[in-house]
Structures are given as structure tokens and as C-alpha cells.
Design brief:
The complex is a heterodimer of chains A (453) and B (490).
Chain A: H1 28-36, H2 44-49, H3 51-60, H4 67-87, H5 92-114, E1 132-137, H6 150-156, E2 160-161, E3 175-177, H7 179-198, E4 202-203, E5 209-211, H8 212-217, E6 230-232, E7 241-243, H9 247-255, E8 258-261, E9 267-276, E10 294-304, H10 311-329, E11 334-338, E12 350-358, E13 363-372, H11 376-381, E14 383-386, E15 394-395, E16 397-405, H12 406-416, E17 424-425, E18 439-440, E19 449-450
Parallel strand pairs in A: 4-9, 8-14
Antiparallel strand pairs in A: 1-11, 2-3, 5-7, 6-7, 9-10, 10-16, 11-12, 12-13, 13-16, 14-15, 17-18
Helix pairs in contact in A: 4-5, 6-12, 7-12
Chain B: E1 11-19, H1 20-24, H2 40-48, H3 55-61, H4 88-91, H5 96-106, H6 112-148, H7 156-190, E2 208-212, E3 231-232, E4 244-245, H8 249-266, E5 270-273, E6 277-279, H9 280-284, H10 290-293, E7 297-300, E8 305-308, H11 313-320, E9 323-324, E10 332-341, E11 358-368, H12 372-393, E12 397-401, E13 413-421, E14 426-435, H13 439-444, E15 446-449, E16 462-463, E17 466-468
Parallel strand pairs in B: 1-17, 5-10, 9-15
Antiparallel strand pairs in B: 1-11, 1-14, 2-12, 3-4, 6-8, 7-8, 10-11, 12-13, 13-14, 15-16
Classes of the chains: A alpha+beta (453), B alpha+beta (490).
InterPro entries (chain A): aa-tRNA-synt_IIb, aa-tRNA-synth_II, aa-tRNA-synth_II/BPL/LPL, Ser-tRNA-ligase_type_1, SerRS_1_N_sf, SerRS_core, tRNA-bd_arm
Pfam families (chain A): tRNA-synt_2b
GO biological process, one term (chain A): seryl-tRNA aminoacylation
């Protein structure tokens, strides 16, 4: 969404600006009070001047937001405010008006926050709504023996356990054992080393339990039937706390209410975290590790300026290039797809998915994605930058991308590197992180006999 | 465990090997900070063991856990019935004196008289049941004889046999109902009985220092009053009291995990990656009421309410729950690296890395044969392993033996590893090696074949392995201390 210069009556401007160095920080209590007054800063002028274009955008993205309702509420709020100003004095009618203003303002904010980001002009919006193939890397491996899927391979090699767990650790839970657990650690170490040493990402250790408002600020819904977000039981844990489904939320929270100098940008952050997702689908693809409720992931997060509108585009290309190299060096065959408008979700201006060939599924499966959210998240989370000390701060652009979603990569590796005897070769780049091990074979020990007696 | 019998359970040992953020506090990357309210001994013991729990809290900890015992009346409502093998025959028989000693040494409350009374009633009823069943067998034989002789169904003999059969059925039903009712009363009480105590455990509350290393710290590393750039701690809108690690700190965190992973892999431990959420009743297996203690996070899922604990002793135990290990797989040694969560550390303000509701940890578990000789050998070996690890890290530490009144019900013996923090001029707990013998394996039905020649599937007589473990518990008190570092090891 376009950056609003000069503020908007919908929001109260935060009077405090936090710096990256941590200097001039107000006390904890002061900050709490400031945070209470922070509201998303949405460009109402842009909305009012582009009603038809926004309605068309919502339709193309198959969203459920209603820009006309936003406009109606905006007009209603304006009238109420005028009435309040003209009423003067103190009394019951004025209190009632004030309450109406607050209520309408809240409704308007909810409706405005549901509006999706603008869409990149090159995003596929064709009739078939199919993603556009950007690049195909590697070729499908041909097998001269009957192949197994990752669940069979994992069970035979005793490195993945998904059975006999429902009554203890819940539906779709899993253990990784031996080489499976080593593979998880190796993937994380390999990814982090690349991101930090080659691409100058700053590693941040993020919390996994986060307040709902940060999710909402990222454009993720925490309410509703199809939400992917787990909530903590409020009877035991007050404060509307949720479990992060991605480190993107934690990293966005880290940057919340911060203003950077333009010279500090682009900001490259990375985090390893446990991710928790409700995953409501009941399809057959839920078998094994493909759609699990908890997993480890390495996430990339970027902050750029929006001076020429090219900065975030360039950084988006950089994230995709990093992903391309990471997965190509693992020896996987995958394709990079420019996702169509209806697959973007609310925050993304543009989104690329990476889908790796998974022979056991006989199809491509998503292993990663990259999104350019322009100023959609930063307006909600107040992530800003300024060009010099005296200039007004403006909203930065944020981007995110998955560097390593462990279970999906384990699927791709096991299924593509399997051999006739049921063993699995370890990609060359991971071998140094697995104590030089080259092949995963069935261990002689460690098999459990399950009983209900 | 109190009892050894024909059925054997493996011993289990879990150790909170490396609570990474505690170790981080010793290293240069975090330098020193002030304003951190840490209640070291209490806080970490809470997390790593039960040694500082007050008696009132211990009573909560040792609260019986109906979750791992299915009462007869609930049998039809659950997918499967769980009935731990507590071996009460021996418990209230030949080992009764040891049991009384253990209860006394731990200062626990247990109405043994009542339990024994109920148990004797159960035994009498079981004798009665055996007699009725013998009579029923005889009656069935009589029925077959009458049938062979083709005696008329309305004859006196057939009528008498049938009436006798009906009476025996009714009697059996009544006896079974009475036994079930008594067991429903007895099990929750018996589940709260403590483990035996190792002969070397000091009686009372005073922990014993076993080894004390040289304090190697420099004055310049004492508290300087500077804010630490490695910790970003003011994020109330994300979650009050939380923090982010930045700059060198997350790298050091990862490095410690790598070192621990390498070390344990070289020692022959198998890595295990565990789920972070477990169902409520699994928590009961450790004899703890997590809901009461507010230790786990409770997550609303569509499936059921799940408990978010992250990496914990449970993560290991439930992997083996209701399974039989192969004899030649013992000793089973595994370790896990992961996040751990503790709801007790949620607070309005940041209180230090050691009091974060989230952190990375490395823990290990050992299951081995059910014998006290094996326990002695493994326990000493694991203690040596820990000593070697902390020595290699270059940390000043000491080993402390935990006294009887500071032990939880499930613990046979426990040693704490404490590291020296110059800023508070004191040692603080970072890990506990805990032997549970077969206390947990009996409750979770973790077994191995009694005959080494048989496979797990073939075996009918099975043993329960022994273990060493680490529990997480709520803090009992708060003591403000500062954090400083000791040595740079990375």
C-alpha cells in the first residue's frame, strides 16, 4: 500500500521513536503506555481515491474484505466527529457520541485491516489462475526400482516415527531418531552458515509465544474457523497469547515500533524457531511429515526503504536467489513459481513459491516461499526509516522468505536420494554436518515393539 | 522403585544436560548486566529438579495421578486401559521397611496403614475370587457330565447345577465389583508412594558438596552496570518479560548446542527430535500435576487440549511408553536438542535469561537393565560424562548431592551440577542427574524381555528398565541476584 505522508486521523502518532542501537529508550512503563496508543496507520486518502481499483484487487485476490463498507464507515465516522465537535459542552449526548465514535473507529479499523495489499502488476491474474513458472532447476530423477515415499523410508530406516503417538503427543506428531534427527540439525546448520557467512544475515533468537496483535500486524488472522494459529487457553494464560507458526511473527515483533536510518537498510535478519500450525486439512497429503503441527524452520526477514520502489523488489530477488542456491546445492529438482493473486494472502504484494519434486507423492510439493509485503506490515507494526535526522519518518518495506522448512526438505531428500536397498544417500553439502556420514541405512538396534498390555 | 519382581522395568535416567541460556550467562558474549532479578538456586532448581520445594509444594508434586490409572468404571470410556504395575505385593511385603524409611526421609505424608488395609482386603477378595473360579470350573465339568448322560433338563440334578452356576456367576460379579472399587481407591494413593532411596543419600534438607572446583574468574568480569547489547528485552507488545538474543548471543547459543551434540554423539548417544506438545494425562505419569503448578502452557487445539512443554523428561519417556525394547538394545542412550517452555516464567518484566519461559536445552536419557549394580555403574559413568563436558567448556562448577527432603517421589538419587557466577559470588544449578530406577518405566509400561534370548515380540515375561532424569518445577521463592560471566569458551 502506498505510504501516507503526514499521518492520518485514524491513528494517533507515536511520539517515541526507538533506535536500533537501543539508545534513548524510554522506561519500560512509559513504553507500555505508548504501545497502548499504537494503532495501524492506514492510508485512507489512498483508499478513498482508489475505491474501484481496490475493489477489483480484492476480487482478483478472492478476498473477503469490503472496501465499500470501509468508505461507508469512514463517512459515518467523519459525520460523528463533526457532530461531536459541534455539540460542545459536557453531557449525556456528548458521552454517547464519544462512545459511537470509538465504536465506529474500531469497526473501521477492523475493516481497513482486512483489506489486502496491492498486487504486483506482473502477478498472474489469468483466467486459469495458475502460477507462472519462473524457473525450473535440475531434472526429475528416474528410478529403475519401485520407489517408497518418505513415510515408508523413514519407518524402515527407523528415523521417523509417526505411529502409536496419537494418544500421547497428538494427531500428526512425530519423532525423528538417529540420522533423522541429525538430518534436521544438519539442515539448520547448513542454512544458517550460508545465511550468516555468505549473505550477511543477522541471527536473532526469537520467542515462540507471542501476543495476537503481532500476528494481526503481520496480516495473519488469529480468529475464525480456518485460522492456522494455535491459541493458548486464556483461562490459564491471559493476554491473548498465540503460538507462532513462523519466525516471521517473532522477527516482525522485534522490529515493531522501530525507526531506522536509511543507511542501516536493507536489514537482513534470520531466525531458527519451532513453528506451530493448526493445519486443518484432512487430505491424504497429511500422511507422514508433509503437513505437521510442529516443526523447525529457518526464516529470512528483510527490511528495505521504499525510496524508489525498487529496493524491496531487488531484495525480493535476492531472497529468491538465496533460496535457489540453497536448494540447488542440496541437489533437489524444483521449480520457482510466481503465485497468482488469489494465493497471495493479505500481506503479500508479490509471492514466489518453491516447489520440489517429491517422487513418493508423484508431484511437486511446496518447500519454501518468499513474499514482498511492501509497507503492508510496517504500517501495522510501525516499522519506519528516515533519510536524515530532521526528515519525517516513512514506512519501510518488509519481506520474508523460508530458508529451510525442515520436514519438507527431509521429505524431498529422502524420496529423491533413496536407493533400491531402501538406504538414502546424504547430499554432499550436508555430510560435513552429519559427522561425514554418506548414507543412511537401517540400523540394527533401536526398534521398539509396541504393546497395549 | 520400591519393588523388584518377576516383571522387570528398565531404569531410566534423564538429565537436563545443557540449559543453554544459563550457560550463555557465563560467557563473554553476554558480558555483564545489572538489574536482573534471578533467584538462582530456587529458580533453576525449579526448572532442573525439585530440590528446593517447600513441603507444601512437595505435597502437590507428589499428588497422585489418576491419569495413568484407568478406574474400572471408566474402562468403557477410554480407547485403552492403563494400569501401572506397582508390584504392591512386594511393596507392602518384604520391602515395607524400606518404604517406610523412604517416606520418613522425604518427610512425606502417606497413610500406609489405610493402604495396607485396603490391599489386604483386595488380597482376601482375590483369594475368594480364585475359589469361586475353581468352583465354576467344577460346575462346568459337572454340566458336561450331565449333558453326556443325557439327563432331562427338568431333572433335579440339572436344575441344581444350573442354580449353582447362576449363584457362582453372581458371586463372581460381586467380588469383581468389590475388587475394582477397592483398587480404584488404592491406586491413586499407591501412585503417590515414593521411590526407594539410595543408601548414600543424605537424610534431611542439607545438600552435600561432592566436588568443588577452583573458582577461576576475573574481577573485571564482575557486574559493570552496562546494558547488554546481546539481549533485547523491552518488547511488551510481543509478550511482557520476553527477550530476543541478538549480536553474538544467538551464535553462542547455537555453538553450545553444536558442542553438546558433538560431545554426546561421540559418547554413543542417539539423537532424538521430540514433539513439543503432549496430552495432559502423559504428564501425570511423572507424578506431577502440571495444571496445578501452572508449569506447562495449555494450548487449545481442535483435537483436544494439549500441553506445551517443549523438551522435557516427558519427551523421552512418552517415546518409549507402552513399548518393549529389545534386550540387546540396552543400554538405550539418547539425547535431544530443543526448545523448552515453562509457563511459570511468564512475568510482567524481564528477569534474566534463566527466567525466560522459553529456552534451548539439551537433555539425555539412559535406559538400562533392572539391577542396582547396573544403576551404580551407569550413574557413576554419567556423572563422569557430565564432569568431562563442563570441564571441557571451561566452566567453574561443582557437583552437589541432593538431600532426601529435597527429592521428588520419583527420584532414587540426584546430583546437581552448579556453576560459579562471579556476579553473585555464588554457585547456581544448571543441571541435575537423576536416577529413577524403574519408578517411571513401571508407570508408563516401558519394558524389555526377561529372557535375553527372546525378542521383544516373543517375550511374555518382561522387565522394567532403570533410568536417570530431570524434572521441571515451579519456583518456590525468589532471590535477586545478578548475572555475570566467568570465562570465554567460544
Amino acid at each position: 500500500m502506498r505510504i501516507l505522508q503526514g499521518g492520518c486521523s485514524l491513528c494517533r502518532q507515536s511520539s517515541t521513536v526507538t533506535s536500533t542501537s537501543g539508545e534513548d529508550r524510554s522506561s519500560s512503563m512509559d513504553r507500555k503506555n505508548i504501545f497502548k496508543s499504537v494503532k495501524p496507520d492506514v492510508d485512507m486518502n489512498h483508499i478513498l481515491n482508489n475505491i474501484d481499483a481496490i475493489a477489483r484487487n480484492i476480487q482478483q485476490r478472492k478476498g473477503d474484505a469490503d472496501v465499500h463498507k470501509v468508505v461507508t464507515l469512514w463517512k459515518e465516522l467523519k459525520q460523528l466527529k463533526e457532530k461531536l465537535q459541534s455539540s460542545g459542552g459536557v453531557g449525556v449526548s456528548k458521552d454517547s457520541l464519544k462512545a459511537q465514535v470509538l465504536e465506529t473507529e474500531q469497526l473501521l479499523l477492523e475493516q481497513v485491516c482486512a483489506l489486502p495489499n496491492d498486487t504486483h502488476p506482473d502477478t498472474p491474474m489469468n483466467e486459469t489462475d495458475e502460477p507462472r513458472l519462473v524457473e525450473e532447476i535440475g531434472v526429475k530423477r528416474k528410478f529403475d526400482f519401485p520407489i517408497k515415499d518418505h513415510a515408508q523410508l523413514g519407518e524402515n530406516l527407523n528415523i521417523i516415527r509417526t505411529k502409536h503417538l496419537g494418544h500421547i503427543t497428538g494427531h500428526r506428531s512425530y519423532y525423528l531418531r538417529g540420522a533423522g534427527a541429525q538430518l534436521e540439525r544438519a539442515l539448520v546448520k547448513y542454512t544458517l552458515e550460508r545465511l550468516v557467512k555468505r549473505h550477511n544475515f543477522q541471527l536473532i533468537s526469537v520467542p515462540d509465544i507471542i501476543k495476537a496483535n503481532v500476528f494481526e500486524g503481520c496480516g495473519m488472522r488469529t480468529e475464525g474457523l480456518h485460522t492456522q494459529v494455535y491459541k493458548l487457553n486464556p483461562a490459564y494464560h491471559p493476554g491473548n497469547l498465540c503460538l507462532a507458526g513462523t519466525a516471521e511473527v517473532g522477527l516482525a515483533g522485534y522490529l515493531m515500533n522501530r525507526t531506522f536510518h536509511v543507511d542501516e537498510l536493507p536489514l537482513r535478519l534470520a531466525a531458527v524457531s519451532r513453528c506451530f500450525r493448526a493445519e486443518t486439512t484432512h487430505s491424504s497429503e497429511a500422511r507422514g511429515l508433509f503437513r505437521v503441527h510442529q516443526f523447525t524452520k529457518v526464516e529470512m526477514f528483510g527490511v528495505t526503504s521504499g525510496e524508489s520502489s525498487n529496493e524491496s523488489d531487488d531484495f525480493f530477488k535476492e531472497i529468491v536467489a538465496i533460496q535457489r542456491n540453497l536448494f540447488a546445492d542440496l541437489g533437489l529438482h524444483f521449480q520457482i513459481l510466481d503465485m497468482p493473486a488469489h494465493d497471495l494472502g493479505s500481506p503479500a504484494y508479490r509471492k514466489y513459491d518453491v516447489e520440489a519434486w517429491m517422487p513418493g507423492r508423484d508431484s511437486y510439493g511446496e518447500i519454501s516461499s518468499a513474499s514482498n509485503c511492501t509497507d503492508y506490515q510496517s504500517r501495522r507494526l510501525r516499522i519506519k526509516y528516515r533519510t536524515d535526522g530532521n526528515s519525517d519518518s516513512v514506512y519501510a518495506h518488509t519481506l520474508n522468505g523460508t530458508a529451510c522448512a525442515v520436514p519438507r526438505l527431509i521429505i524431498a531428500i529422502l524420496e529423491n536420494y533413496q536407493d533400491k536397498d531402501g538406504s538414502v544417500r546424504i547430499p554432499d553439502v550436508l555430510q560435513p554436518y552429519m559427522f561425514g556420514q554418506k548414507v543412511i541405512t537401517r540400523p540394527v538396534r533401536g526398534h521398539l515393539h509396541h504393546t497395549r498390555l | 522403585m520400591i519393588v523388584l519382581s518377576k516383571t522387570y522395568y528398565p531404569s531410566t535416567c534423564i538429565m537436563a544436560f545443557v540449559p543453554v541460556r544459563h550457560c550463555l550467562m557465563q560467557f563473554d558474549c553476554l558480558v555483564t548486566r545489572t538489574g536482573l532479578c534471578i533467584e538462582r538456586n530456587a529458580a533453576i532448581s525449579r526448572r532442573l529438579k525439585f530440590n528446593i520445594l517447600k513441603s507444601s509444594e512437595r505435597s502437590i508434586v507428589s499428588k497422585s495421578s489418576p491419569g495413568i490409572f484407568t478406574p474400572a468404571s471408566k474402562g468403557v470410556e477410554v480407547p485403552f486401559v492403563i494400569k501401572p504395575d506397582l508390584n504392591l505385593d512386594v511393596c507392602f511385603g518384604s520391602q515395607l521397611d524400606d518404604l517406610k524409611l523412604s517416606i520418613q526421609a522425604r518427610k512425606q505424608n502417606a497413610d500406609l496403614t489405610e493402604m495396607i488395609k485396603v490391599w489386604k482386603n483386595v488380597q482376601e477378595l482375590e483369594e475368594m475370587r480364585a475359589k469361586i473360579e475353581t468352583d465354576r470350573r467344577k460346575n462346568r465339568t459337572r454340566a458336561k457330565d450331565l449333558s453326556k448322560k443325557k439327563i432331562m433338563t427338568d431333572s433335579k440334578d440339572v436344575k441344581g447345577q444350573r442354580e449353582e452356576g447362576k449363584r457362582l456367576r453372581e458371586d463372581l460379579k460381586k467380588v469383581n465389583a468389590e475388587i475394582n472399587s477397592l483398587l480404584d481407591r488404592l491406586y491413586p494413593l499407591a501412585l503417590s508412594l515414593p521411590n526407594q532411596l539410595h543408601p548414600d543419600v543424605a537424610i534431611g534438607t542439607k545438600n552435600r558438596i561432592i566436588t568443588d572446583s577452583q573458582k577461576t574468574f576475573s574481577e573485571k568480569r564482575l557486574m559493570t552496570g552496562k546494558r547488554d547489547e546481546s539481549i533485547s528485552e523491552e518488547h511488551p507488545l510481543v509478550q511482557e518479560g520476553t527477550c530476543y538474543l541478538q549480536a553474538d548471543a544467538p551464535h553462542t547459543e547455537q555453538r553450545i548446542l553444536d558442542i553438546a551434540e558433538d560431545f554426546l554423539t561421540q559418547k554413543g548417544f542417539t539423537p532424538l527430535s521430540c514433539p513439543d506438545m503432549v496430552k495432559q494425562y502423559a504428564l501425570d505419569a511423572l507424578g506431577q500435576d502440571f495444571r496445578e503448578q501452572r508449569e506447562a502452557f495449555f494450548v487449545d487445539t481442535k483435537e483436544s487440549e494439549m500441553c506445551l512443554t517443549g523438551l522435557s523428561p516427558l519427551s523421552f519417556y512418552v517415546y518409549y511408553m507402552m513399548s518393549v525394547l529389545e534386550s540387546n538394545d540396552l543400554p538405550e542412550r539418547c539425547f535431544s536438542i530443543g526448545r523448552s517452555y515453562n509457563a511459570n516464567y511468564v512475568s510482567e518484566e524481564f528477569k534474566g535469561l534463566h527466567q525466560q519461559y522459553q529456552g534451548n536445552q539439551v537433555q539425555f536419557l539412559c535406559l538400562f537393565e533392572n539391577s542396582y549394580q547396573e544403576e551404580e555403574a551407569f550413574y557413576s559413568n554419567l556423572l563422569e560424562t557430565l564432569t568431562e563436558f563442563y570441564t571441557n567448556l571451561g566452566i567453574t562448577f561443582r557437583v552437589v548431592e541432593i538431600a532426601s527432603e529435597n527429592l521428588l517421589s520419583s527420584v532414587y538419587r540426584q546430583n546437581a551440577i552448579q556453576i560459579w557466577l562471579p556476579s553473585i559470588q555464588n554457585f547456581v544449578d544448571v543441571g541435575h542427574l537423576t536416577s529413577c530406577c524403574d519408578f517411571v518405566s513401571r508407570r508408563l509400561m516401558i519394558k524389555y524381555p526377561a529372557k535375553p534370548t527372546q525378542t521383544a515380540a516373543e517375550s511374555r515375561i518382561r522387565k522394567y528398565p532403570y533410568s536417570v532424569l530431570y524434572f521441571i518445577h515451579p519456583a518456590s521463592k525468589q532471590t535477586p541476584i545478578g548475572i555475570s560471566n566467568d570465562k570465554s569458551g567460544f
